[in-house]
Amino acid sequence: MGLLDPFLLEALVNGILLGGVFALPALGLNLVFGVVDVVWLCYAELVMVGMYAVWFLHTQAGWPLALAFAACLPVVALLGVLLHLLVVRPLLNSPPINQVLATGGVLFVLQGAATLVFSTEFRSLGVDMPPMEVGEVFVSGTKLAAFCAALLGAAILWAFLKFTYVGTAIRAIARDREVMPLMGVDPRRIYLIASAVGGALAGLAACLLVVQLDVHPFVGLSFGPITFMICVMGGLGNMLGGFLAAFLMGLIISVGGFWGTTEFSYVVAFAFFILVMFLRPQGLFAR
Amino acid sequence: MQTRGTPRRGLLQAGAGLGLAATVPAQPRAQTAPARGGDPLRIGVMTDLSGPFAGAGSVPLFNGAEVAIALFNERGGVDGRPVAAVSADSQSKADVAINEAERLLGQEGLEVVTGIYSSAHAVPLSGRFEAARKMMWITSAIATAVLKDKHFRYVFRPTVHSDQYAEGTVSVVAENAQKRLGMAPEKVKLAVIYEDGPYGTGVSTAIEANAKKRNMPLVLKEAYSATTPDLSTLVTKLRRERPDIVYQVGYNPDITLFLRQARSGGLRFRMLFGHGAGWSQIDKLWDTFGKDIQYFCNADPAATQMLDWEKLQPGVGDLARTFVERYSAKHQVRDLPPHASMGFNNTWIFLEHVLKPAVRKSGGMTAEALREAALQVDIPLGGTIQGYGVKFEPPESAMAGQNSRSICVVMQFRDGKSHVIWPSQIGQEPVLPLPPENPYALRS
């Protein structure tokens, strides 16, 4: 089995595309943590709410899919703002464990609320794109489109943070939370904006995931825990680190599964994570 | 427009009931008929009303049990004493199932708990019930490992076990290989992918053993987590091995994920066999995939509407009809999932053939009396709405507590409904291989 083995090549491509699935949530989670210094344990559940929003608007309300996608972003951004105002802000000066427990509580509230409103049924958008076939290598059209959208989303975020005044303020707060208020930056406003952007990224992730996974109240279990692992591995609060770690993790899982078994690939991924925590506890890409 | 699955209000009620059950002792939930006198006979009903298992058959299992208890009470209960169900939601988590069992046995003081959807829960719970000398009446969890070589005295399972699934799905291929596939059975390449809990492991191990017995090559056998976000690499490996037949043992999110990724990954086969759980939720699968899953097969105990009720024992057909009418009126489904029949049937067997004689004989309801009554049950073939009879293996048997007369059938999806194709004596002719117009059909 050489490197030109088409099946190995396909596994590599799958790994990169899988990384794209993890990258956006990792980016959003890291943005919020980097700025507000609070881990949103319920981040995957915000994505779940966004997936339900798209499903409902498209299949129940009859909106065109593009419009449902467009609406999903502000909906989840608003949820991010509400989460900050109602749960995070009152606990900003509390011990970190209180903040984690509070956002963990929101996780259960959102799961329970989704169960009550939508029941435990698995909802499908019923949208699929034809695969691309290059020789013996198959590439999922849906995953490829989602991957491209993830890259585009990440590029827009980068441009926002790099070239706008608010973006600069966000980066500055992330770098030094104590000093920036002395320079005229209102941290409360920046926290709110970061929460909205973090929510919008969850909304974008929802748009990409809803075409790949069925929606149900516990769908966050599929990608939530691994997203946290990726964030920690890349360096919690380090957006670029989390983004790169997502692709690394995707490749480990995919190629590990190809050479070994699907279960083995996760053993390798978690073993690698533990190793990183021993050797670089601050994260692989932390400066 | 028809609504499908669990209505929101029903689930709200279930949730409220669960909340009450957690805080208020002895809140009956599933008892819906008026009592006619006498103290209620309290039994536990534990299923997964939330979490991933809820959408993979556990909710219909609960709904079926609910109909059974209501009907039993309407018909007078046990000499006027109604049955009051104390429900528990194990939330698709083994630790919650264990805690809820402790509550039902300790705080509620129950002598028997029925239900138990998942084998992953049944394995740890069975030991706990045996130690406590309280009866566990399993209506769904099918892993052979729950009972095998355990010699339990208080754990009973009227439904099928995982070895029977494999016997069915491998037999269908072996019996039809030459005639329909044009291949000797020894040439048919099999692959099995399965969720990595006791359910998937049990069925896949039995498939491997059955294939080996028939000299059929198993080219891939691989486990995955039911909550995995990606199965595309597994699809790639399946494509590399080019199996003729794919066996999947899964719940629900993993089934739909696999089918989607199999299609986008170019995987093709001659036939795919599911093995209950998520594969038995035909309405949902059909809504999601439509004709793409036309002629796919699935193994499970038969849903009662698939059987010819005239051929059942006297009176059983009427019971089946009553159940189907009531269930359909309340839940409005196109095709009742097997789990609805399992919930009703196995609860009914308990109420009518175990609880009633035990209470009549002992005057009360103790686990010991229930156990003795269970060992006396002797229902012939065709004596239950799912067609099978009931006779439990005694404690000295390797499969103590297992119903030795349970039957698993293999069914095929045709236009949104399931039809029995095996055992061949009672089944229709199978469509095998998948016709060329099917997007998953192997190109010859």
Tell me what you see in this structure:
The complex is a heterodimer of chains A (287) and B (444). Chain A has 287 residues and is mainly alpha-helical. Helices cover 72% and strands 2% of the residues of chain A. Chain A is built from ten helices and two strands, in the order H-H-H-H-E-E-H-H-H-H-H-H. In chain A, strands 1-2 form a two-stranded antiparallel ribbon. The mean pLDDT of chain A is 90. With 444 residues, chain B is an alpha/beta fold. In chain B, strands 7-6-8-9-10-11-12 form a seven-stranded mixed beta sheet, with helices on both faces. In chain B, strands 2-1-3-4-5 form a five-stranded parallel beta sheet, sandwiched between helices. In chain B, strand 1 (41-47), helix 2 (58-74) and strand 2 (83-89) form a beta-alpha-beta unit. In chain B, helix 5 crosses helix 6 (198-213). Chain B is globular. Chain B starts with 7 loop residues before the first helix and ends in a 22-residue tail after the last strand. Residues 1-35 of chain B have low confidence and may be disordered. Classes of the chains: A mainly alpha (287), B alpha/beta (444). Chains A and B meet through helix 1, helix 4, helix 5, helix 8 and helix 9 of A and helix 1, strand 7, helix 7, helix 8 and helix 9 of B.
Report a brief summary of the structure.
The complex is a heterodimer of chains A (287) and B (444). Helices cover 72% and strands 2% of the residues of chain A.
C-alpha geometry of chain A = globular
The CATH superfamily of the largest domain in chain B is known as Response regulator
Overall domain count of chain B: 2
Most strands sheet of chain A: 2 strands, antiparallel
CATH class of chain A: Mainly Alpha
- State the strand order across the main sheet of chain B: 7-6-8-9-10-11-12
End-to-end gap of chain B: 41 Å
Task: Tell me the layout of helices and strands.
The complex is a heterodimer of chains A (287) and B (444).
Chain A (H helix, E strand, L loop, with lengths): L5 H31 L6 H18 L4 H24 L7 H23 L13 E3 L2 E3 L1 H23 L1 H11 L11 H23 L10 H15 L4 H21 L2 H18 L8
Antiparallel strand pairs in A: 1-2
Helix pairs in contact in A: 1-5, 1-7, 1-8, 1-9, 2-3, 2-4, 2-7, 2-8, 3-7, 5-6, 5-7, 6-7, 8-9, 9-10
Chain B lengths: L7 H16 L17 E7 L10 H17 L8 E7 L4 H14 L4 E4 L3 H14 L2 E4 L16 E2 L5 H20 L8 E6 L2 H16 L4 E7 L7 H10 L3 E5 L3 H12 L6 E4 L7 H8 L7 E4 L15 H16 L6 H25 L4 H10 L32 E6 L2 E6 L22
Parallel strand pairs in B: 1-2, 1-3, 3-4, 4-5, 6-7, 6-8, 8-9, 9-10
Antiparallel strand pairs in B: 10-11, 11-12
Helix pairs in contact in B: 2-11, 3-4, 5-6, 11-12
